Amino acid sequence: MKDVVVRNNVKIIGKGKQPILFAHGFGCDQNMWRYITPAFEEHYQIILFDYVGSGNSDFNAYQSQKYQSLQGYKQDVLDIIETLELQQVIFIGHSISSMIGLLASIERPDYFEKLIMIGPSPRYLNDRDGYVGGFELSDIMEILDMMEMNFLGWASFLAPIAMNNPESPKLTNELEQTFKSADPVIAREFAEVTFLSDHRSDLSKASVPILIMQCSDDSIVPIEVGEYLHQHLKASTLRLMTAKGHYPHISHPQETIDLITQFL
Q1: Which domains does the chain have, with CATH numbers?
Q2: PANTHER family from the xrefs (predicted)?
Q3: How many Å apart are CA 29 and CA 179, to the nearest integer?
Q4: What would the pLDDT profile of 209-237 be if each residue is shown by its tens digit?
């Protein structure tokens, strides 16, 4: 048990019994949830963690081969649930973690009661079949090249685009520092796995109720993606947020809390 708890830097807070498992997105760590968790501490057991290679996880446990697809990250989630013997899990995932949680719930639907997806996308690339993901392959390759050539420059470039809240420079700066603190090699591998993944074929296999929280004016995930997910996830609810950007749990915590609470 200790191995998984240390490996993924697992923290448990809250006074309730039913677990909420908060899963951070690419380039981030569990610290990203700090504006949200206080609202749920009274009634839920809150589990926070870092994926291997992120935050204060055990970087020695990172293996490129294991984490070359989302399956490795999905295994992190299932390991935590099994180690802590969690039941009726409410999974809240940001960005790519939404798909990681989806894959975990497909493998073990008995572990999960509900999935909440914040800024989810099953595929970030536009497709010839008319699917709008928001990026061309050349855009993604440019980002990956930039990460390799000038990691700090990449962080400074992407943070303001992803946060998209110019009236709150402090939030953008904080995100930039989080990006910069990542291991450049691991971060680039995680970026490649994230941006080149395609999990559209998995959507029909989902069976647990799902809340899709789609931000308005999200430069990473356009509104068409939220609508696509809602069409293809049979037990889903789509809520369009007034929050702009890709990090509403940081920039608009109260709206994020309200929508989660309504769904629960």
Answers
A1: 4-122+199-263 (3.40.50.1820)
A2: ESTERASE-RELATED
A3: 10
A4: 999 999 999 999 999 999 999 999 999 99
